[in-house]
Design goal:
Strand content of chain B: 25-35%
Distance between the termini of chain B: 44 Å
CATH topology of the largest domain in chain B: OB fold (Dihydrolipoamide Acetyltransferase, E2P)
Oligomer: heterodimer
CATH architecture of the largest domain in chain B: Beta Barrel
Helix content of chain A: over 70%
Number of strands of chain A: 0
Radius of gyration of chain B: 24 Å
Number of helices of chain A: 9
Largest interface: A-B, 72 and 66 residues
Shape of chain B: elongated
């Protein structure tokens, strides 16, 4: 039976967050086409699990997106393992394990790329995805208190990794 | 003044307006999804499976019935945010008093005077009001009243029962209630005779110097 109310609520969720989810993925995979396909996977999963009576929001969508992304990374790694030495290797090397392109000289992105993956993840979720503490906590499966502590430390680590002149500009939260 | 937030925003490789119109392929995807009813949606009004940060979450197998949703149906069990038994236990743990003291923004002796519940982003919290009687670290002073928030799903430490007094190790924030540094080490119950009772999972015993500073 078609639940028109559920359809409308899912459509609203989709319209509110599709762009954010796609940007989240574009920031983490080298190929925009891959990002679009992964975004479609995220919303297919969301549609399967969407409960119109539950307060599902973007934090849950981002948690799904992270899992979709992890699965994508594993597929890429498997392909890389199985195709090593053949002509696709170069293309696969452009896939997402590195977040910064070799020719990217942006000082903040270069500094970010030197941090541990979990630290990068926190900073990106906060400042690129613009999730609040509670949302980041839900996405990462942490308590809000732990998230605040880790975010505080992550900011300090990024500040320490920045070139001196840039770091001077970022000397507060 | 430039902040880390500003620097990060300027470094965003995919900055965009959140209200940008949906691309045509997204519109097509939405139409495709709405045309193929999900095979696994919980029945309206029935208890829904827990999502996100929950203990012991088990997803049921997902039947594959509709060709249009094959990908999602296959992916759903492994892609949904599954939290295992350790998910809610992912707190920093401090093996020594020095590390515990360093982790806390505020260390006080305080009596719990009231409690209430609150909900934030769908998560239920217990919020207790405590009255500070002594302080060893942070901006609080005797007589101050603090709010301390903790997940309602966690066992509430004895020190936060109304009428109890505890030594509290808190993380404090300018725009939100404080929280224990972690569930096991955020509080020590002060008994009627002045002795302390730590959580069974907390091996750290407080030094005489710190207790002296707290007037205990």
């Amino acid at each position: 039976m078609v639940d028109e109310g559920a359809d409308a609520r899912f459509a609203a969720l989709f319209r509110a967050h599709y762009i954010e989810v796609q940007r989240f993925l574009e920031r983490r995979v080298a190929d925009r086409e891959d990002a679009a396909e992964l975004a479609a996977d995220v919303f297919r999963v969301a549609w399967q699990r969407f409960d119109p009576g539950a307060p599902l929001g973007r934090a849950w969508l981002f948690a799904v997106a992270r899992n979709v992304l992890g699965d994508h990374y594993r597929r890429v790694q498997r392909r890389r393992d199985s195709e090593q030495g053949i002509r696709d290797a170069a293309a696969l090397d452009a896939q997402p394990t590195a977040s910064v392109a070799p020719d990217d000289d942006h000082p903040v992105r270069r500094a970010l790329d030197t941090l541990a993956p979990e630290v990068q993840d926190l900073l990106r979720l906060r400042y690129w995805e613009q999730l609040d503490i509670a949302e980041i906590a839900e996405v990462l499966g942490l308590s809000p208190a732990t998230t605040r502590v880790r975010l505080h430390r992550a900011r300090a680590r990024l500040r320490a990794a920045l070139p001196p002149r840039t770091a001077q500009k970022g000397n507060e939260r | 003044m430039t902040t880390i937030a500003t620097l990060m925003s300027a470094a965003d490789p995919a900055a965009t307006r959140r209200d940008a119109p949906l691309p045509p392929r997204a519109e097509a995807l939405l139409a495709e999804l709405l045309a193929a009813p999900p095979t696994t949606r919980p029945a309206s009004g029935s208890p829904r499976p827990a999502r996100g940060i929950r203990r012991g979450l088990v997803w049921a197998a997902v039947p594959v019935l509709a060709a249009g949703v094959v990908t999602a149906a296959v992916l759903a069990p492994q892609l949904l945010p599954v939290a295992g038994p350790g998910a809610t236990a992912d707190y920093p743990f401090y093996p020594t008093e020095a590390e515990l003291v360093d982790a806390a923004d505020t260390i006080v002796v305080a009596r719990t005077v009231s409690e209430s519940t609150a909900s934030d982003q769908g998560v239920a919290y217990l919020v207790v009001t405590v009255e500070v009687t002594a302080a060893a670290k942070g901006a609080s002073a005797p007589g101050d009243v603090l709010e301390v928030r903790m997940p309602a799903s966690e066992e509430v430490p004895a020190a936060f029962a109304v009428g109890s007094t505890g030594v509290l190790f808190l993380s404090t924030y300018p725009d939100a209630p404080a929280s224990p540094v972690n569930p096991e080490q955020g509080s020590y119950l002060v008994d009627a005779d002045g002795s302390l009772t730590a959580s069974p999972d907390n091996p750290v015993r407080l030094s005489a110097a710190l207790l002296h500073e707290l007037g205990l």
